[in-house]
Amino acid sequence: MKINSKIYKAALLLVGLCNFTPIAFCTGTVTGKVNRSKTCETSNGAVRYGKVNGTVEASMARYRKGVVVYLKGVNENVIPKNATMDQKNLEFIPHVVVVPVGSTVSFINSDKVNHDIFSASACKKMDIDNFHPGSTRTEFFGMACAVNLLCDLHSEMSGFVVVVDSNHFAVTGTDGKFMIGQVPPGTYDVAVWSEKLKPQRKMTVTVNSGQTSTIEIPLMK
Fold first, then answer.
1. Cβ pair 186, 207 in contact under 8 A
2. Domains of the chain, each with CATH number or no CATH
3. Count of CB atoms situated within 10 Å of the CB of 59
4. Nearest to 52 by CA among 194, 184, 218
5. Torsion of CA 86, 89, 171, 27, to 10 degrees
6. Strand duo 103-109 + 145-151: pairing
């Protein structure tokens, strides 16, 4: 009887587990571990994030790289972060860094010579002098604008920190392509910054729940 009683209790437990229905199902991206997005697809129809894939078109192929594309009008707080810009072989690497308003950028000197980084941009004046090899300096960027960086000691050096009032942005590769992920559903203005070119027209993009929107951005002088 004791054995039968144990079997009976085990059977009840299995039935209970089979009848259990989870409330929500989250989707994530696998990159060595599972990251769950803040918004889940639930049994009552809650939305998922979407993404924007796009291409920047320019008459000269070299101008397709390093273009900043970001979305404006997303109803959320802008979240600051920390980015890194290196100096190596007398170049700013990457040439363009994009960060949200209120972020910091850590500048690293990986060269074997001193640098003297400065900016005369109206929205962010800065001067990092006596920047010795192997050292790191951090600067705060509190206003949306494009900050042109130069070096007093090496006139050939130039770079940009582009500060945007958005959490959703990307920098194009050499092929002009970009991807902006984790975008809440909605219709947003598409803002573009380029060192040399300008967008031909104003653009918007509509992002649907769990789907990918595709846009093409033509640039001109």
1. yes
2. 2-36 (no CATH), 49-78+166-221 (2.60.40.1120), 79-164 (2.60.40.420)
3. 11
4. 184
5. -60
6. unpaired
Written as one letter, the residue type at 46 is A
What is the layout of strands, in order, in the sheet containing 91-93? Answer: 91-93, 82-88, 103-109, 136-141
β-pair type (34-36, 158-164): unpaired
Kindly state the tokens that stand for 70.
Answer: 């970001």
What gap in Å lies between CA 196 and CA 220, rounded to an integer? Answer: 9
Mean pLDDT by 10 residues, the chain (221 residues): 47 41 31 33 65 95 96 97 98 98 98 97 94 97 98 97 98 98 97 96 96 97 88
Bridge partner list, 192: 69
Torsion of CA 29, 74, 193, 116, to 10 degrees: -80
Q: Does the predicted model carry a pTM greater than 0.85?
A: no
Residue carrying structure tokens 């049994």:
43
**Distance separating alpha carbons of residues 6 and 153, to the nearest angstrom:** 82
Please provide residue 77's backbone torsions phi and psi, each rounded to the nearest 5 degrees. Answer: -75, 140
Which secondary-structure segment (H or E) carries 3?
helix 2-18
Q: Residue 119's closest CA among 150, 83, 94?
A: 150
Comparing CA positions, the residue from 92, 141, 140 lying closest to residue 117 is 92
Tokens of 175: 């092929």
